Task: structure prediction
Amino acid sequence: MQNKYGWALAVLLVLLVGGYFGYQYVKYRPPAFLIALFTAAKPPAPLPEGLAAPLMVPEGFSATIFARDVKGARVLVRDPKGALLVSQTSEGKVSALPDLNGDGQADRIVEVLSGLDQPHGLAFICVQEDSCTLYVAETGALKAYAYDADTYKATYQKTLATFPTGSGHYTRTLLPAPDNKSLFVSVGSSCNACEESSPLRASVQSVNLETGVMTPVATGLRNTVFMALHPVTGELWGTENGRDLIGDDIPPDELNIIKQGGNYGWPICYGQKVHDTDYDKRQYIRDPCADTVAAHVDLPAHSAALGLAFVPEEGWPEEYWHDALVAYHGSWNRSEPAGYKVVRIDFLNPEGTLRQDQFTTDFVTGFLPAGGKSASDTIGRPVAVLAEPGGVAYVSDDRAGAVYKISLNEPPR
Result:
């Protein structure tokens, strides 16, 4: 009898210890299938017929459907002759959305590239209007294509660089440097919280377009999914997704000014140099976050801040000039959903000084209907934001498979 109880106790102990360490592993390195299980959502209802988008925008603006049936729509860029290009990450495609008659709707969807491995970042660099290179960041490689803006055809030229693949964040986002001789590329972490084995992970790199050599710009960035250059200061800014599974309201997502050589703290620090003691339980004589760079703006936890664009002056109300538009893709692991909208971050001056009072206002809402409790209740999830002169912004939606056009009804004179 004693042996029986002893074996039972031993088995219980093994289960408890195994369960604890299993939980710790999953917490810091949640497998893709588990995340997919939590983020699974029934298909959204079809978008309504007609031009009007089922979204809410500030007074004086209107929201229309620029393109529909663009499954997995993510990054938006303009080609040299004005057509919108969109990466369809889940579909392995890049498509063009020309509006040749200027009626505010894409005339058709033109397949530019297909058979790609989770393409995300897109960038054009042109020597002249008719001599342009399209750069596409797949999850494991940065590739260059000769691009014909009249036919929307892209011809493979070369692979400039390769990126680590496997578990974790798979999107790679591109942004041309001001001199057009290099591209900034963000490479997300392989985990929720961990020490990375690859120096490319959880960083922003600069890729030389002649040699393909990558040099680090900044580290400690868990997942900087979108970047933009500030129109006044020329500084590199980026949205940052904070880690999961330590609470509804921590850590914040971030809007960062990405400085050369900066360490932004992940995996041991977040936000305003807050030490993540859930992950990092070591004892320090000196504050381990002292030499890290604090977030410029703390954003709502788990809102999944993605698209980032600065509002230009031409054609926009003066109070909007140089403010940031940020797309909140929406939470997946919060008891009450957060995000599912595009917000405007209102700065005090062109340099990006933050207000101390209410500095964030809603710009596009309605992706999550009133009373919605999960991603399954959403009509869509905003991803990229492209703000242009004339009081116009475009927003991609990878859930509804759409691109929306937000227009100021009467641009200021």
